[in-house]
Amino acid sequence: MNPSTSALLTDLYQLTMVQAYLDREMEEEAVFEFFVRRLPPNRQFLIAAGLEQVLAFLSDLHVTSEELSWLEQTGRFSPKLLRYLETLRFTGGVDAMPEGTLFFPNEPILRVVAPIPLAQLVETRIMNLLNFQTLIASKAVRSVLVAGGKPIIDFGLRRAHGAEAGLLAARASYLAGFAGTATVLAGMEYGIPIYGTMAHSFVQAHKDETTAFEHFAHAQPDNVVLLIDTYDTEAAAHRVVALAPELKKKGIPVKGVRLDSGDLADHARKVRRILDEGGLREAQILASGNLDEYRLQALVGTGAPIDSFAVGTAMTTSSDAPSLDCAYKLQEYAGRPCRKRSEGKATWPGRKQVYRQYSDNRHLGHDVVTTLNDPQTGEPLLQPVMKAGHCISPSPALPEIRHQVQVQLTQLPDQLRRLEAGAPYEVQISQALQSLAERVDQCV
Amino acid sequence: MNPSTSALLTDLYQLTMVQAYLDREMEEEAVFEFFVRRLPPNRQFLIAAGLEQVLAFLSDLHVTSEELSWLEQTGRFSPKLLRYLETLRFTGGVDAMPEGTLFFPNEPILRVVAPIPLAQLVETRIMNLLNFQTLIASKAVRSVLVAGGKPIIDFGLRRAHGAEAGLLAARASYLAGFAGTATVLAGMEYGIPIYGTMAHSFVQAHKDETTAFEHFAHAQPDNVVLLIDTYDTEAAAHRVVALAPELKKKGIPVKGVRLDSGDLADHARKVRRILDEGGLREAQILASGNLDEYRLQALVGTGAPIDSFAVGTAMTTSSDAPSLDCAYKLQEYAGRPCRKRSEGKATWPGRKQVYRQYSDNRHLGHDVVTTLNDPQTGEPLLQPVMKAGHCISPSPALPEIRHQVQVQLTQLPDQLRRLEAGAPYEVQISQALQSLAERVDQCV
Fold it and tell me: Are B253 and B224 spatial neighbours (Cβ–Cβ below 8 Å)?
């Protein structure tokens, strides 16, 4: 069983609603849009991510015979629903912002247009995929913004929320500008550069640190990054210096050391001095251990001689904001725009487009959210990506998405680059959209 | 590709370390233990969960030919490592606390004993599985403790961190005492009761609420729970009352209504009155919408007439503490106990047992963590579960684990049942273990 591809990875109410729709032959065209209602605390913008996985999910949508048998034996579902699921394929259309697009509250990043049973059925997994990768990319980019160009590596798999979270967090953080990941499978699946050296256990398993370092260096002569905080960080740095000449004779350079505990800035300074005085000026210092964007900013701010960082749990769980206030809402059915008006959860009706306007041809100025038939100046952000169940073109390559994120970061106004939230970016709701909402409310 | 079963869902350093071990023919017996260093804020105890998935992972451990080819073509790995991976099987032993056991910091809940390359290689996925389910079970039980016996349902899949997180959160929350889940696949895979009715979109897609309710009732005559907050909650409750007699004539009872927004206690009181006055005394009220254990406690405390709750994002992401400070540490190699002494991250060495002592034969009194060869009074919590790569017995059935959790909750001292942290539960480190740590430190 692969939960990532099962059509039953969905909420039961999707099936009960589809059953009710089929009973009434309600199969007209529905329009759903996915958007974020408001930013989490400590976020000034979000990065759209997960579209490639959504399109793969839609392209592959089917119910297996085993799943169908199980549904049948529950006795909960009508023969009509079971027949519908037996031949289930996604035949609808999708418009979306390209992955890697910076976006803001109330801006749809994805629209599904399909017969209502189908558009409804795919809600849960679409939300599950877009919420997570967007969440992680939007967290990871904050580390990228404060690292001053120093490479950051994803070390988060062990505390990611399950297998898929670990794998997709590697993808989302790379997309946001991380240099790579420790997760081997992300290398195989997505071509993301993989990094890794040794754990404390490796040092502990040897009778002394020097022997551990020596064994590792011979086993990985091109990748000698030595973990030096198992017992005493500075003492270990001296051991590295003492060992280096012998390794050098064998053509093995010490590429670097890793610090994983204590006052990282202080250790980095002391270790840098020890390495420099020991002739290891080329050896780099990698820092890890409970890092997040705030600690990165502080470390970079103090000028600590750290060359690269590994960020794990805080990024991979988006620890300060582990979910988005996102929604996938019905905006139109059978040609009739609609919206919910639940307290605190009202949404803008109809099919929408988002236009981005640049203040000086270079920096993001403001966005306008409007109805699809109300063209505005600026760059329209949603584009068709799937028609009649088929992708219009292959998804962009991950390095290309990553590059586009970096381009947009250079277009961010200064106040949006900071970790602390300032004045929010302006998202205008157009007159056309406001009028539509009023008309919709009068009709109910 | 199924990330849940791939042996490459691991950190690169596991492979580099294994390569180094194989180079030196270091394949003696290693002992690793998994434990939590300290409780997250707002947690007074944890619930061990995820063992069944760990045992399944170990039983199935293998590298596919496709994975092997990819590893080979990276050029990073020695032929010796590739040959080792080609025939990789888990042949070690595992001791563990049964799933559902309440536990505390510094108490190992799992021990792996295997040749060091093997015991090292499985680290990442073991941590990934135990961290997540333990995290979720320990969060979910807090809602169970304050709900006063009212059923709670998991609605969290859409904002869970990916596919596996959604599926396993359903399992972990059920294990902790939830009544069921909306996630269909969790019904199929784990036999967990599934619940679900309708979304706001269902109401919106109809020309009016009454028609939507009527259609749903006919499609799901045994499951008529109607969502009444799409437009105006009390108005919708009156519509339910007006529709009920006609449904009753057809033998369709209104089982309940769901509230999903606004002041839930206030709406519940008003809706209860409308339903009662309309002759729907049997109809239940289900509340959902951004609930967590604090809101549940407040709702239950005010005596709001809510019969059951759905809890989603806060539980499925463990939003206030989305990770555990957990570790899988080498405690012994080749018969030699060891520990790391990194600042703030020192661990207790050697193979350990945890003894639980009851204060009055009924309530948890304190625990003692000691070496394996130092028997204490009380109940030993770790038991052998796998020998030579084979499970000793089938994993307990999920309802049985769930029952054991409920038994232990009755044994909790009052102060540990509260949401707010009080005096911590006493975990003694035995004299034998302290002496061992001293001896180990003198040897390094």
Answer: yes
Cβ of A215 and B20 within 8 Å? yes
- Which one of A5, A8, A13, A331 would you mutate to disrupt binding with B, by most B Cβ within 10 Å of its Cβ? A13
Q: Are A311 and A153 in contact (CB under 8 A)?
A: yes
Which residue(s) pair with B53 in the sheet?
none
Q: Which domains, from first to last, does chain A contain?
A: 12-137+323-443 (3.20.140.10), 145-316 (3.20.20.70)
B69-75 long-range contacts, Cβ below 8 Å, gap at least 24? Answer: B70/A188, B70/B8, B71/B8, B71/B15, B74/A187
Nearest residue of A to residue B199, measured between CA atoms: A13
- What pLDDT tens digit does each residue of chain A (444 aa) get? 899 999 999 999 999 999 999 999 999 999 999 999 999 999 999 999 999 999 999 999 999 999 999 999 999 999 999 999 999 999 999 999 999 999 999 999 999 999 999 999 999 999 999 999 999 999 999 999 999 999 999 999 999 999 999 999 999 999 999 999 999 999 999 999 999 989 999 999 999 999 999 999 999 999 999 999 999 999 999 999 999 999 999 999 999 999 999 999 999 999 999 999 999 999 999 999 999 999 999 999 999 999 999 999 999 999 999 999 999 999 999 999 988 777 776 789 999 999 999 998 789 999 999 999 999 999 999 999 999 999 999 999 999 999 999 999 999 999 999 999 889 999 999 999 999 999 988 875
Q: Please compute, for residue A105, the number of CA atoms within 13 A of its CA located in the half-sphere on the CB side.
A: 14
Task: For residue A142, give both structure tokens.
Answer: 């904050």
Q: Is A328 helix (H, G, I), strand (E, B) or coil?
A: strand
Nearest residue of chain B to residue A262 (CA atoms): B343
This model of the complex carries an ipTM of 0.97
For B:282-341, CB contacts with A below 8 A are 313, 317-319, 322-324, 326, 329-330, 333-334, 338-341
Are the CB atoms for A38 and A105 separated by under 8 Å?
yes
Between residues 205 and 224 of chain B, which touch chain A (CB distance below 8 Å)?
205, 208, 215-216, 218-220, 223
